[in-house]
Amino acid sequence: MAHTHALDIVGGESALGISIRSGRDLIAAVRHGLPVKAVEHVLDTGRMTLAELDLVVLPRKTLSHRRKIGTLTADQSDRLMRAARVIAAAEDTFGSKEKAATWLRRPTTALGDETPLFLLDTSEGALQVETLLGRISHGIAA
């Protein structure tokens, strides 16, 4: 399945509490709302900081509220999976979590001197980052 690495970034089956065997399963899980454990896993593994999560996925105050409820909303879940998908693509492209983290946090000329991670707050921004990662992975000048 194409989203295997992205699922690992949010903690996989242990964090999600369900088995994701297909893209349809993932869509259903996102629509239902992912467990807050998925966010905790992203934070615990250093894939995103609380400040980055605040800008890209959901505000800290909202996260505190969602912790009490136990799940994210569908929109929050969608933003989390979008970020996880791009982080996974960066890790695959650069071959390591550390190199990907550095690239995601550095302003990039090909993105108008924007920091790739901070473009993930919109689907269009994520698409531009994913397109650039595709170009890099295929050796096309960025």
UniProtKB/TrEMBL annotation:
**Ranges of residues in domain Antitoxin Xre/MbcA/ParS-like toxin-binding:** 89-139
Q: Where is the Antitoxin Xre-like helix-turn-helix domain?
A: 25-85
Q: Which InterPro entries match?
A: Antitox_Xre, Xre-like_HTH, Xre/MbcA/ParS-like_toxin-bd
* MF-aspect GO terms: DNA binding
Give the superkingdom in one word.
Answer: Bacteria
Q: Name one Pfam family in it.
A: Xre_MbcA_ParS_C
**Name listed for the protein in its UniProt record:** DUF2384 domain-containing protein
